[in-house]
What we know:
The chain is α/β, with parallel strands linked by helices. It has one domain: Bira Bifunctional Protein, Domain 2 (BirA Bifunctional Protein, domain 2), CATH 3.30.930.10. It has 7 helices and 12 strands. It has helices at about 40-55, 85-95, 130-145, 215, 225-240, 250-255, 265; strands at about 30-35, 60-65, 70-75, 95-100, 105-110, 115-120, 150-155, 155-160, 170-180, 180-190, 210, 240-245. The longest helix has 17 residues, at about 130-145. It is globular. The model is unreliable at about 1-20 and about 270-275 (pLDDT under 50).
Amino acid sequence: MSLDHLIPHAAVEPFSGTEAMDQNDAPRPATLVYGQAMPYDEAWTLQRTCRAERAANRCRDLLLLIEHPSVYTLGRTTQDGHWPGEDQLSQETGIPVIRTERGGSITYHGPGQLVGYPILRLTDYCAGPKAYVRLLEEVLIDTLAEWGITAHRREGLPGVWVGGDRPSKIASIGVRISHGITTHGFALNVCPDLEPFSHIVPCGISGCHVTSMAALMDTTPDLHLVQQQLAALFAARFHLTWTETVALERLATLMAQPERDLSPSSIRAPSNLEGAP
């Protein structure tokens, strides 16, 4: 997948690992990682490895855009009242449960949901976690607007919502920042099965109704097109340019190597694991 037709590329300086962000400068070079379904625990391990590489300035900022097979994930603020417990939930749904280090409560991930994991040095982009979450919300709101969906944020309730009197949540956000590097991120409901949300209190919000782009439209959006649009809008909002686009499988292979080389030339190197989606 190439985003050249969506993202205007600017002249990019050679990678040094210490670029400073300035809206008057050329967009900061970054790497876009795309893929289809990857089990949540594998993606979590990959994020942690990427975080360590970014903290050591051995790679550029990254954005991973993927899907997960069905899974419930518990954030740090999950309470007993937000879910029926692991045994009952697994019995009711047959869906595995994973406890995580991210912020927020319990949520569901599954096919048809576009999940984004930015691996960024936070201070290069904004003042702190609250400003970062607002930037993510703006990217999601902009993406939905491309499809004629008017979305908004709600004060004190991170994520993106649609509707007025009885708003429905269409995208969730749960992040973690460690050693100044972001992990976890956001999940946009493009066309997932929404039934699994009915077994939990989504994001720990009582009475929270969950919806999707497909539920709001006369047609089912193409998830890969949404992925492309979101990547372009993310780059614009964060003042980035995608100088490399790499398949998820290739990044995972590179990260598994003991003496990995994540320089741009290595990431772009041909591989029989990398192909156009």
